[in-house]
Fold this protein.
Amino acid sequence: MKGAWVLAGGVIAANVVVLAALAVNESGPGQADRVVVEDVVAQDPAAPVVPLPTTPPASTGQTAPDGPIGPAELADSRPPPLRASPEWVAKVSAETGIGSVAVRAYGTATLTLARDVPGCRLGWPTLAGIGAIESGHGTHAGAVLLDDGHPSLPVLGPALDGTNGTAAIHARPDDTAWTQDPDWAHAVGPMQFLPSTWRRWASDGDGDGVQDPNDLDDAAVAAGRYLCAAGGDLSTGAGWWAAVRSYNHDDAYVAQVLATADGYAART
């Protein structure tokens, strides 16, 4: 465990410092670094976005509140999401080997969470570490992450039917829109959300008016909200560990995310 906390230093530093490379300069129009952040839907300042809950996230086995499954229309007026600059995306993609669409999603989610939950201090390497492990940034089984944030092939986890060490989680009727399995739940999309978890944390990360766990732009923001609610201040070792462990209650998984995220942070 001691070694893990030492490794965490790079990730935690990135959680705090990364916004220096992403944040917009508000000192006045015409500043060179104003292009770092763009409004995704600036033409519609009332574009609806899901509000942030203030309670801790449900575990993957928790029964979530009833609600529609699949891409859902949003219904409130939080400010629109932000977008990481193309220059930053290209730089980080070249330095880490992560595809540019995935880097854009992680950077955009970081900016959006920094604005909406400033005390969380979530860094993009943490999201990237989770995305790498869960689906290879949306490239599992030969898929290609398309420019709209969707993998070219569905990213679907195994049936959670109680075998091979999995939990037994029965599907709800509306889960089948994503999984095509009327009997058992599956984790869905690049960040591998269970439908029950998505119902609670569904987000619109690209301002297109829908919430879709198969869209990495949406899933990265939802994952960030989940982590922030679970860990509080992710610039602390305890907060970071608690947040990532809430995503998967396995210390080996947390250590793997830590090593992966730390590697990304070290290369940028």
User: Anything to note?
Assistant: Strands lie at 37-39, 72-73, 82-84, 210-211. Residues 2-37+45-266 form one domain. The longest helix spans residues 100-116. The CA atoms of residues 70 and 178 lie 7 Å apart.
